[in-house]
Give the backbone structure.
Amino acid sequence: MDDPSFSVEVNTNTQEILLAASNHDLAALKPFLRIPGNASVQDPETGFTPLHAAIAACEKEENGEEVDIEKAKEVVRELFLSGAIWNDLDSNNETPGCLAGRLGRKELYELCVEAGVRAEMLLGLMGKYEVLDSESEDEEEESVDVDAINGDEKKDVNSADYLASDLKFSDDKLLDADNNGVMMAWETSIMERSVASLLPPGEDKGKRILNIGFGMGIIDTLFAETQPAIHHIIEAHPAVLAKLKEEDHPFGPKWEASSPEQGAYKTYEGKWQDVLPTLLETGYTYDAIYFDTFGEDYSALKLFFTEFVPGLLDENGRFGFFNGLGADRRVCYDVYTRVVECDLVDAGLEVEWEDVEVGKLGEEGEGEWEGVRRRYWTLEGYRLPTCRFLS
Ligand SMILES: C[S@@+](CC[C@H](N)C(=O)[O-])C[C@H]1O[C@@H](n2cnc3c(N)ncnc32)[C@H](O)[C@@H]1O
C-alpha cells in the first residue's frame, strides 16, 4: 500500500465503479465486479457504496427524465450477487435500503430487504448474527438486545454485564447503570395489546401463564388481572428480584401466598436458560408464554422458541415476544420480521402480525427519553407477533 500509484488506482477504480453504478451501466460495471470487494467500495466523502450510488440515481424525475427502474434493479441485483453489503452506512447514516425507502423506490427497497434476509439467515446458520451499527461510527453505542437489535458488537451491553450492573428505577422507566432503557412506560400500550392477543378477552380467565422478564411488571400486572390459574415469572436481575421480595410488592411474598394452589403464583429466580430445563422436567405447560428480556441478542430469542417453547406451550397455546429487533431503522425491522418468521416456522410455529400504533414519541433526550442513553425506538408502528403451533 506504500506504492502511491496503487492507491491512485484504487481511488480511480472506486469512482469508476460508483459512476457505472449510478449510470445503471451494467456492461461497464460487470468487469469491476469480478474482483472481490469491488461491490462494496465506498466513496471516502459521501460513504456511498455502488448500491447507494445506483439507488440515489433513482431520485424521481431527476433532470426531468424518467428513471429506467428495470435497469436500476438489474444493477442492484448484480451488486448483491457480487457480494455487496446490504447494511453499509453512508455518511448520511443511511443504508441503501434506507435511501430507497426515503426516495419512495419500493422495488429497490424490497431488493435490499431480501438481501438483508439472505445475509442474516446465512449468518444465523453460521451461529453469528451481524447486526447493523446504528449511528455514526464514533458515537457511543448501546446494546444488542432483543428490545432493539441494532448494536455494534464491540460496544454491546451483554447479558453478563447487564445482570451485574446497578439499575435505576423510576415511575416511567427502568434504566441500567449506563442509562440504557431496560423498560419504559411508553411500551404499556404494546403490553396491553400483547396480553389481548395472547389471552383474547372473554377467554382469558383461569389460564396458565409464563412470563420471562419482569422489568417494570407492566405485563405481569395485566396478566394478573386475568385471574390466572398459574402465573409463573422468570427474572434474573438481582435488583429486580430484591424489589420482588419486598413485603408489599404486588408480586411479592403476599402474591405468591395467594396462589390458588401451592406454587401456582411464583417468581423463579435466575436466567431462563438455567431455570427452564428444571421447569420442563416438572411437566408444566402454559396457555400463554411471553418473552421480553434485555441485554440478549437474537440468538437467545431463537434458542428460546426453538428449544423451549415446543415443550412448554400447550398445543392450543400462544406465544409472544417483544418485537424490538432492528427497531430504530425501518429496513432492519423489515429484515428481522422475515428472519424471525422463517426461524419460527423451523421451530414449528406460525406467526400472525398485528400492527400497533406506537404514537408520537418524544425526540432524543426529550420527554420520556430524558436521561436515556439512546432512543432505541424510532418507528411509529410496532409489529406485534402472536405465535401458535403450525396447523
Ligand atoms: C424489558 S424488561 C421486561 C419488561 C416487562 N415486559 C414489563 O412489562 O415490564 C426485561 C427484563 O428481563 C430481565 N432479564 C434479562 N435477561 C434475563 C434472563 N436471561 N433471564 C431472565 N430474565 C432476564 C431483566 O432483568 C428485565 O427485568
Notes: The mean pLDDT is 89.
